[in-house]
Target: TIGR03085 family metal-binding protein
Amino acid sequence: MNYARAERSALSDLFAQLGPDAPTLCEGWTTFDLAAHLVVRESRPDAAGGILLKQLAGYTARVQESVKTRKGYAGLVELVRSGPLGPYRLPGLDKAVNTTELFIHHEDVRRAQRVWEPRELPAELEERFWKQIHGGARLFLRRSPVRVVLHRIGGGVAIGGPKDGPQVEVTGTAGELLLFCFGRQSHAKVDVSGDEEAVAKLMDASLGV
Model:
C-alpha cells in the first residue's frame, strides 16, 4: 500500500474540513501556512532549502507567503491533494520520502485540535517507522541534552543522545516514538521515565532533522 498517498488524502480532507485558520503543532503556523509549506517543499526546490537551513529561511518564508497569496487556501489544499508535485512525481520517490513527512504533518493538524485520539497504525507502517527510528535515532536525537533509550512496544530498542550523563527511557509504539523524535515530545503518547531534571530537559529539547 502507498501510505504516502493515504496520508496525503486524509490530511487534505482535514485541511478542507478545518479551514485556513485552524492551529497546528508547527509553532506559529495555521493550516493555511502548513498547506503552503507542503506545496513549496514539493514544487519549489529553489526555496525548499530554507526548511532545513536557517540561512535560507527568509527566502523560503517569502516564497511561502507568495504562494499563499497567489493560490489561496482552497487552491493549496487541492495541490496537496493532487500531489506529489515536482521531483516527487518520480516513481517510488513519493512513497520513500513523503510517507514520514505527511504522517507527521497530518498529526500536527490532528493533535492541535481540542479533541483527538491517537490512531492505530497498520502493522506494515509501524514496521516502516521503526526501521527509520532504529537507523536514524542518533541523527534525530543528536541535539538531545541527555542519553535517550527508545523502547518500542512489542520489541526493539534504539539509542541516541550523548553517551555520558543521565539517561531517559521513552516507551511507545513506533508511530508515537517517531513523533517524539521529530520534536513533538509533548504530544506523543509515550511513557517517559528517568531523573526529573533530565526528563524536563529532554521534553524541552529541539529534536529531529
Observations:
- The longest strand covers residues 147-152.
